Amino acid sequence: MAIESTVQIAPDIWRITLPLPFRLRAVHLYLVRGADGYSLIDAGLDTPTARAAFADALQQLGVQPSQITRLYVTHMHPDHIGMSGRHAQSGARAFIMPDEERRARYVWGNAPLEWAEYLQSHGMPDAAAAGATGAAADLRACVTLPPMFEYLADGDIVPVGDRSARVVWTPGHSDYHYMLVDDAAKLIFAGDHLLPTITPNIGLYPECRPDPLGDYLESLGSFGDEAKYRVLPAHGEPYDELPVRIGQLKAHHDERLAGVRERVVAGGSGGVTSFDVLRHFWGDKLSPHEVRFAIVEIAAHLEYLRLRGALSRESAGAVHRYNST
Ligand SMILES: [Zn+2]
Prior knowledge:
Elements: E1 6-10, E2 13-19, E3 26-32, E4 38-41, H1 48-61, E5 68-72, H2 78-81, H3 84-89, E6 93-96, H4 98-107, H5 116-121, H6 126-138, E7 150-151, E8 157-160, E9 163-169, E10 178-182, E11 187-191, H7 212-219, E12 230-233, H8 242-266, H9 274-282, H10 288-307, E13 311-314, E14 321-324
Parallel strand pairs: 4-5, 5-6, 6-7, 11-12
Antiparallel strand pairs: 1-2, 2-3, 3-4, 8-9, 9-10, 10-11, 13-14
Helix pairs in contact: 6-10, 8-10, 9-10
C-alpha cells in the first residue's frame, strides 16, 4: 500500500510522511498552523530523498520553510532529529530536552562511538560488535544538528501552532523522549512512545539511564485520563482507545520478560549473555543494524529483571553473564 505523503488531520494540522531507508519505511512529521507561524513536530531523516519529499509537501501546502518557526524534536533518534539543523537554518527554533541534546551530540557528533566494547560485554562477537557500531556511525551522514537547541522541561506548556500543549517526559524508548499533549483538544503528539502496531525499541546503552524498560513501563499512561485522548504517532496511523494499546504494550514486555527469564533459567549455571538470548529469539537472521537494536533490547530486559532481584549478573572477563536467582 502506498503511503500518502501529506494528510490533513485537523483544520490546522497536517501529517507529512517522509521515507526511511529502514524496514520501518516511513516517519510522520506533524505540521501545525498558527497565526505567528507553523510548528513542526519531529524533523525527518536528513537524506536527499527525504529532503525532496519534505520540500514537495511544503509546496503542496503552500508553506515556505521560513514560516516554520518552531521545531519540536521528541527525541534524538535519526528519523526524528536528522533534519533539525536544516529546519533551524531556515529559521525554526529547535526544542529538545537538555539531556537528550547531550546524547544527540555524542551519537551524531565526530567523537568515536564507543559501543563495540559495550556490545562485546553483552556477549556479541567482536566482528558483529564492530559491524553494529559501524552501521550506527554510518547514520551520522543522515543527521544534521543545529548549532543550538532551546530546552524543554517536563510539565512546560508550549505553543504548537495556535494550540497549547503540555510537555510530558516519557523516558524508555530514549532517555529524554517527550510527548506534546494538547489537553484542550485531547490530542497527543506521541513521537515513538505510544506506537499503534509496533512496540518501540527499548534499549540499554552505556551512556544512558540504567533501567530504560523500568522507565518505559512507568511512563506508559503517566499523563492521566488516557481514554479520552487521540494519539498521533510518528509511525503508523492515528488511534483512540489508548488504554487498550497501553495494555498491549505492557503485555508485550511482560511476555518478553518471561521469555528472557526462561532462557536464563534454561541456560544453567554457566550463565547466559544478552547475545545468547538474542540468538535464541532471532537466530542469525538480523542485519548489523537490527542486531544492535535487538541486543540493547535484550540487555534492557535482563537488567530490568536483575534490578528487581529476579536475576543475578557476573562480569568475569568483562562479559556480563546472567543467572537465575
Ligand atoms: Zn525513535
